[in-house]
Specification:
single chain; mainly alpha; two-stranded antiparallel ribbon; 59% helix
């Protein structure tokens, strides 16, 4: 770099910058052509010269994402030099700078997490929520770094943000981030358990941040407590091994400690929250074992349903859902207001349909068939990971029950027709199962016991 340009960046002299540009209009352009270079913006970031940095970004926006020969962007250097005000200003100009990957895949956001800048981390998340998914080349996310560097306050901010996310697919993002494994298959909970804090497992939570981290992560509903790390240890295994190293014995042999009137036995707390040892867990099947296993009838059914969900495009899915909704509405309305109306007299036929019983039976069968098929197909079209999938199941079940009751009340013989309705639902389910069986039989014509279960 031109020594005069470097001096202008260090002093923040904008006039000197333009004097150099007047002498050589390509002074910044030539620098931009180099893939990895220290730019005036790097110098200004390390010095905290905000006006000069804003002017450089105005002239050369690409400099904000340029890495120097050490693999750091200007914002990386500002974080490293603790220029908090400069970081805020840069993010106001371009909040995407928080996600620029530098050396080892570390972004400025991840650097802020490692340095414990909780208030800046919160601002980054508000400005750019996708930061929470950033990872290093070692597949470590912000939670890993917060635990590794003992940044409990930052971990509180991160967990609080994850639990309060309301963006699209937030539930899936929460699960992935909280249970992300690094290259050694260690999740944040594993790292928190493996931290050695001088018998921290036997003392009160408020004195030891690692204990607080463990407790904070255990309180998250989406944290998987019994996942194995690269050494085939669960969280509880690591906790017990750590306790033996710290206390010279088994955690259980020491008994709970009382500090300031507070009883603390982390192992018991972990067990109560569902944590188990690796030895007590069923051995999970590996992918190659699943793929080489017999293609059973039930596997065929689940594969068929998955394909039914994924085959339609988003546009086609939307059209099908609208059609199914109209069918459900029309068939349900028929149950409430049957053709021809109902008897209005006060005799025994009050409330029952006016039409002849033979016509009503045909109406009942066709209407119920259309209603059930529309409900079933709507269920198949809803995305598998949809937050409302379970809700729709119970709503659909309640709607089917209310439909059966409505049709029974307007029928000539309510008890007979309500029994027939539930029998119809059962027969429809058996028919669908039979269709699956027939299709599978066409693929594998020789009957095998493994169609239903493995032998």
């Amino acid at each position: 770099m031109n020594p005069r340009l470097q001096q202008a960046a260090e002093s923040g002299s904008i006039d000197q910058l333009y004097a150099l540009i007047d002498e050589n209009p390509y002074i910044l352009e030539n620098m931009d052509a180099v893939p990895f270079v220290t730019t005036p913006l790097h110098i200004a970031a390390a010095s905290g010269n905000i006006p000069f940095a804003k002017e450089i970004m105005n002239l050369k926006p690409s400099f904000a994402r340029k890495l120097n020969t050490s693999g750091y962007s200007p914002l990386h250097l500002a974080v490293d030099k603790d220029k908090t005000k400069f970081v805020f200003r840069m993010l106001m100009l371009d909040n995407g700078l928080a996600r620029v990957k530098g050396r080892n895949g570390i972004t400025p956001f991840l650097s802020l997490v490692s340095r414990g800048k909780a208030h800046v981390v919160a601002e980054c998340l508000l400005a750019f929520p996708e930061c929470i998914q950033d990872e290093t080349v070692d597949s470590q996310n912000a939670l890993h770094l917060a635990v590794t560097h003992d940044r409990f306050e930052v971990l509180q901010v991160l967990v609080g943000w994850i639990q309060r996310m309301s963006q699209r697919d937030a539930d899936s993002i929460e699960y992935r981030v909280l249970n992300k494994s690094d290259l050694n298959y260690n999740r944040p909970l594993h790292l928190a358990a493996s931290k050695n804090d001088h018998q921290a497992y036997f003392y009160t939570l408020r004195f030891f941040p690692n204990m607080q981290m463990v407790r904070l992560l255990l309180e998250c509903r989406s944290v998987q407590r019994n996942k194995l790390n690269g050494e085939n240890f669960t969280f509880l295994d690591i906790l017990r091994n750590q306790g033996q190293r710290d206390a010279g014995g088994d955690l259980r042999s020491q008994g709970p400690r009382v500090v300031g009137g507070e009883v603390l036995d982390l192992e018991q707390v972990a067990i109560k929250t569902g944590c188990k040892e690796a030895a007590s867990l069923p051995r999970p099947k590996k992918r190659f074992e699943i793929l080489k296993s017999p293609f059973t009838f039930w596997t065929y059914c689940s594969t068929f349903v998955r394909r039914l969900r994924t085959d339609p495009s988003d546009e086609a899915r939307g059209v099908f859902l609208i059609v199914c909704t109209l069918i459900i509405t029309a068939t349900y309305q028929t149950a409430l207001q049957p053709p021809g109306g109902v008897h209005q007299s006060d005799d025994a036929n009050a409330g029952s349909v006016v039409m002849k019983q033979t016509f009503f039976i045909f109406l009942w069968i066709s209407n119920t068939l259309g209603f059930c098929c529309a409900i079933l197909y709507t269920f198949c079209l809803i995305p598998l990971r949809s937050l409302f999938l379970n809700w729709f199941f119970w709503i659909g079940t309640s709607l089917c029950i209310s439909y059966a009751l409505a049709m029974a009340l307007i029928s000539p013989h309510p008890l007979v027709f309500i029994s027939a309705a539930f029998a119809f639902f059962l027969l429809l389910a058996l028919y669908i199962l039979l269709e699956f069986f027939i299709q599978h039989w066409k693929v594998a014509p020789k009957p095998r016991l493994s169609w239903f279960w493995k032998v």
